[in-house]
Amino acid sequence: MSTPHPARRTRTLAVGLAALALASAGCAAPQQEGGGGGTPLLASVDTHFGTVDIPEPDDGELRVVALGWSDGEVALSLGVAPVAIFDWQNFGEENKGVGPWATERFGDVEPELLENVDGSVNYEQIQALDPDVILNVRAALDEKTHERLSEIAPTVAPPKDTPDFAVDWRTHTRVVAEALGRTAEGEELIAGLDSRFGELREQHPEFDGVTMASGSKFGDAYGASLPGDSRFDIYGELGFVLNPAIEELPSPNGFYANISVEQVSAFDADVAVLTTIGYPLSALTEDPLIQSLPVVRDGRALLVDPEGDVMRGATAGTVQSIGIALDAVVPDLAAAVDKLDR
């Protein structure tokens, strides 16, 4: 990407100083002029680290850097193409850092990809992009990182008291939409997926109350997704409930529970959706502990490709990606539930 023009740097500094002055004066509601004819605000967003004021760009072109998990894809769904995206799922340059279902929304825009290297943040690279706003919504609650990013541009952090990365798809959509001044568009997206879930629940009442384990194997360890993680939430929306054995496990990271070799039986729910992280699916299909579970032996477990639509869509956890995952997984879920002895 080209180096930001010096004029934009001057404009950004001026806007930032104006926003600081407005905040100190305790004025300015979104879309209103501040006291004394100051810079109008695009949005004010409540986050875990306090309220973030986002000034309207003078030239009308909002430069967005999307750092949080799928923040960029949510912005795209709202009609805003980020100038840079942190490529959490390693979708790569060919997909412009988002799921292939969303790439075309960029049109001719070529975002700069912020490489996922152990989740680290390259502050100098972000500063050089001269952003108007940084989205770090589905992310860790790291105050030091937030403070450093806020020195560069207004930074939208997760909502208050949200566990790390556990921002559900509705909240995620609403926060990003608010930050971009596109609240109405966000509500339309949410209503559309809500309607889809409602239709599927009507079509599959047999899903209601069926226990579910959604989990993965990574090396010699295992993990189970919890409510707040879209890899479970899409099944919860269909009427499935978390397997009680998983619910009882400690969850230090908020959105998943670690499962030891001795606890693998926690996956033995009425139905399971299992995959791998960083390993081929054969690591699961050839795992004697997994293969010994009744849910697997009875054909009620879906062992899904980590690079397929079910997992990539559920993991991205956006309105569009969840729709892709539902298309792929619902028929197989219905077949698995049909094998229950009820």
From TrEMBL:
Keyword terms of this UniProt record: Signal, Transport
InterPro entries: ABC_transptr_periplasmic_BD, Bact_iron-sidero_bind
Stored PROSITE patterns: FE_B12_PBP (PS50983)
A cellular-component GO term for this protein: outer membrane-bounded periplasmic space
Source superkingdom: Bacteria
BP GO terms, sorted: iron coordination entity transport
Location in the cell: Cell envelope
Similarity comment: Belongs to the bacterial solute-binding protein 8 family.
UniProt-recorded name of the protein: Iron-siderophore ABC transporter substrate-binding protein
Source organism (scientific name): Thermobifida halotolerans
Phylogenetic classification of the source organism: Bacteria, Bacillati, Actinomycetota, Actinomycetes, Streptosporangiales
